[in-house]
Amino acid sequence: MKAVTILGSTGSIGVSTLDVLSRHRDKFSVYALTANGSVEAMLAQCLEHQPQVAVMLDAQAADTLSQRLRENNCLTQVLAGESALEEVAGSDQTDYVVAAIVGAAGLLPTLAAARAGKRILLANKEALVMSGALFMHEVQQNKATLLPVDSEHNAIWQCMPLGSEHQYDFSDKGVRRIILTASGGPFRDADLASLDEVTPEQAVAHPNWSMGQKISVDSATMMNKGLEVIEAHWLFGLPSDKIEVILHRQSIIHSMVDYDDGSVLAQMGNPDMRTPIANTLAWPQRIDSGVAPLDLVAAGRLDFATADFTRFPCLRLAYQALEAGGTSTAILNAANEVAVAAFLQRQIRFTDIARLIEQVLQTLPAKPADSLEQILADDAAARHLARELVC
Ligand code: NAD
Ligand code: MG
C-alpha cells in the first residue's frame, strides 16, 4: 500500500489522479490533498477519499473547510498556508507526491518532496523550468524518484532504454533526438491577422485536451511546448538542439525518441492524462487507468507539420531562454504567468503575451541559477516588470 499526497488535488490533474486512485483502493491510500481556496471541491474530495490531512493555501478557506468537515463527521485534519504544503509534501507519512499545482507556486512544495526523497509524479513543469539544475541536484542528492506526468515526457520516458530508477541523463544512450509532439492548440490554422482579436474563451477551448485555464492558454500560444522543451532538457539531460517540436494535430502520438540506428520509438494513446498518471503511479508495473482503448481505425490518420516560430513566437522565446541559461527560464516563466493572467482578465491582447515576455527577457539580465534565493529574486523582478508593462 502506497500513501499518496496530491498537491493541487482540485485541479484538472488532481481530479484525474483521484479518478485513477479510486480504481485501486487496494494499492493506494490518500495521505493529503491540497488546494488554493476551493472549499466545496475540497470538501467533496475529503468526504470521498478520507485523507488524513487537507491543506488550503487560504486561511479563511481552511477555517470554513474545517467547520464543514466537522458537520459531516469527517476526521480529516485541516492545515493552512504555504508551509503546510511543504510539510505534507515532505511528510514521513507519504510515499508518493503528485505535483499538480499550477505555476511557480508549485516550486517550494515540490522541492520539499525532492528533499525528502519521495517518488514525485511531476505535472508542475514550471518548477523544473524555474530551477532545473538545482531541482535535479536535490532529486539526485536525496535519491528521490522523479517520474514525468506531462504526457510528452511520460511518452519519452517510456521510449527510453530502461535505465536505473535514478537515470536522468540519456546523452550517452544513442539518442539522436527527441521529438515532442504538439497539437498546435485552437489557433493552429487561424489566419495570423485574426490572432490580435482572440478572446480568452476561444484561447482556453483546446481541441484535444481538457485542462486548467493557464495551461490551455499556454497551449494556444505554444509557450506550453516551449516550457516542455526546457522540461525535457532537465529530465533527459539533452541539449536544446537534440529536442525538436513537431505539430501533430490528433494528439495520439504523445512524443518520440529517434535513435542513432534510425529506430524511432513512439508512445501512443488517447489524449487522456489518466494514462501518464496511472503509468507513474504504478511504474514499473501497469494498472488500469479507465482510459478507453485506442481505436486507430476510428482515428483514421496521423498528420504532422513543422512548428512555425512566426505563428508561435513563444516557442522561439523558450528555446532562446534555454540557450541563454541561468535564470533566463525563470524570467521567461514568470513573465508568461503574468501575461497569461492579464490576457485572461482582458487587460492585454493574445498577441501581446509574446511581446511582453520578450520585452521582459530583453530588459532583465539573467544571473547564474545556482541558488534558490537568486531564482526567486529574478522571478519576482520579472513579475514586477511584467506587471508594469501590462499597465
Ligand atoms: P488547474 O488550474 O486545473 O489546477 C491547479 C491546482 O493548483 C488546483 O488544485 C488549485 O487549487 C491549485 N493551486 C492554484 N494556485 C495555487 C497556489 N498559489 N498555491 C497552492 N495551490 C494552488 O491546473 P492543471 O491543468 O491541473 O495543471 C496543473 C499543472 O500540471 C500545471 O503545471 C500544468 O502545466 C501541468 N500539466 C497539466 C496538464 C493537464 O492536462 N491539465 C497536462 C500536463 C501538465
Ligand atoms: Mg504536455
Structure description:
The chain is an alpha/beta fold and 391 residues long. The chain has 2 domains: 2-148, 3-Layer(aba) Sandwich (Rossmann fold), CATH 3.40.50.720; 175-324, no CATH class. The protein contains 16 helices and 12 strands. The protein has helices at 12-22, 39-49, 59-71, 82-89, 107-115, 125-141, 151-159, 200-204, 213-221, 223-236, 274-282, 296-299, 313-324, 328-344, 352-363, 372-390; strands at 2-7, 28-35, 53-56, 77-80, 96-99, 119-122, 145-148, 175-182, 243-247, 253-259, 264-268, 305-306. The strands form 2 sheets. A 7-stranded parallel β-sheet has the order 4-3-2-1-5-6-7, sandwiched between helices. The chain has a 5-stranded mixed β-sheet with strand order 11-10-8-9-12, with helices on one face. α14 packs parallel to α16 (372-390). The radius of gyration is 20 Å and the shape is globular. The model has no long low-confidence stretch (mean pLDDT 96). Bound molecules: nicotinamide-adenine-dinucleotide and magnesium ion. Magnesium ion (MG) binds at residues 150-152, 228.
